């Protein structure tokens, strides 16, 4: 008999479309955002000792092993483009608290990036179709596509894991703000966000926003050491096969 974790990885979508509703949009603001703001966030479930232990040991070992490589990547970014090697971006984490996620910078720094992001958020949360990322071809630094395709740009997030703002496995920390979510979607904030998670190994960009949220919530409800291990192994397979679509 297959374990529950296997079922989550192989057949993760158990939708309940009849009970889920999507907010309309009027004048660029979410109808119902006040409801989302007034709805208390779900109680944080905390981080089990085994999970925090795995995060500390895993992140420490990986940082030690990868340190020369990470320094080389940082130097390369500084050489081929103007600006810092690292990119800090505000994300929403456990309990709705903000934190700065750390990544290698793969794009030129431009002031219009914030406006472009808001357009992407509006499209992301309203269309019921697989997500298409914005075309940043003209902003990608030399070698940036390689870093992104192989998820190398996300390696600095091991520092987030080490300091406790992220976990190795968990719901992906989104760029969205709390008010961009419907009340039922806030369950994903009951645990620490992760470097990888259930939807990243279940289709990633082939999924709709609704499907990704459902997978995040499924992880929250079913998280265990065995499920984390399966997701980590599956992540390695996805990166090696470069199945990022």
Fold and architecture overview:
The chain has one domain. Helix 3 runs antiparallel to helix 6 (157-163). Residues 1-7 and 10-38 have low confidence and may be disordered. With 245 residues, it is mainly α. Strand 1 (25-26) and strand 2 (29-30) form a beta hairpin. Helices cover 42% and strands 10% of the residues. It is built from 8 helices and 6 strands; from the N terminus they run αββααββαααββαα. It has helices spanning 4-10, 33-38, 49-80, 113-126, 144-149, 157-163, 209-222, 225-241; strands at 25-26, 29-30, 86-92, 98-104, 167-169, 194-196. The strands form 3 sheets. A two-stranded antiparallel ribbon has the order 1-2. A two-stranded antiparallel ribbon has the order 3-4. InterPro entries: Bact_transf. Belongs to the bacterial sugar transferase family. One of its GO terms (molecular function) is phosphotransferase activity, for other substituted phosphate groups. Its EC number is 2.-.-.-. This is Putative sugar transferase EpsL.
Task: Compose a concise summary of this entry.
By secondary structure, the chain is mainly α. It has 8 helices and 6 strands, in the order H-E-E-H-H-E-E-H-H-H-E-E-H-H.
Number of helices: 8
Which regions are unreliable across 5 or more consecutive residues at pLDDT < 50?
A: 1-7, 10-38
CA-based shape: globular
Gyration radius from CA atoms, angstroms = 18 Å
| Multimerization status | single chain
Distance between the termini: 31 Å
Percentage beta strand: 5-15%
Q: Helix amount, in percent?
A: 40-55%
Strand element count:
6
- In spatial order, strands of the major sheet run 1-2
Number of domains: 1
Element-level helix/strand string? HEEHHEEHHHEEHH
Query: Taking all residues together, what is the mean pLDDT?
Result: 78
What about the largest sheet?
A: 2 strands, antiparallel
């Amino acid at each position: 008999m297959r374990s529950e974790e296997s079922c989550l990885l192989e057949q993760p979508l158990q939708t309940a479309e009849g009970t889920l509703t999507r907010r309309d949009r009027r004048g660029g603001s979410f109808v119902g955002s006040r409801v989302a703001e007034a709805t208390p966030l779900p109680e944080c479930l905390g981080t089990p000792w085994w999970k925090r232990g795995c995060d500390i040991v895993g992140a420490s070992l990986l940082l030690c092993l990868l340190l020369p490589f990470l320094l080389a990547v940082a130097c390369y970014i500084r050489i081929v483009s103007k600006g810092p090697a690292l990119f800090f971006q505000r994300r929403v984490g456990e309990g709705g608290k903000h934190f700065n996620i750390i990544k290698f910078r793969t794009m030129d720094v431009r002031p219009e990036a914030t406006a472009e992001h808001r357009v992407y958020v509006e499209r992301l949360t309203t269309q019921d179709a697989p997500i298409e990322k914005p075309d940043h071809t003209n902003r990608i630094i030399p070698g940036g596509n390689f870093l992104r395709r192989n998820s190398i740009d996300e390696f600095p997030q091991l520092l987030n894991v080490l300091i406790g703002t992220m976990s190795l496995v968990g719901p992906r920390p989104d760029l969205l703000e709390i008010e961009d979510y419907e009340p039922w979607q806030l369950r994903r904030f009951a645990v620490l966000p992760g470097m990888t998670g259930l939807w990243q190994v279940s289709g990633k960009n082939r999924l709709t926003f609704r499907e990704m949220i459902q997978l995040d919530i499924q992880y929250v409800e079913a998280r265990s050491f065995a499920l984390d291990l399966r997701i980590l192994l599956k992540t390695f397979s996805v990166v090696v096969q470069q199945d990022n679509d």
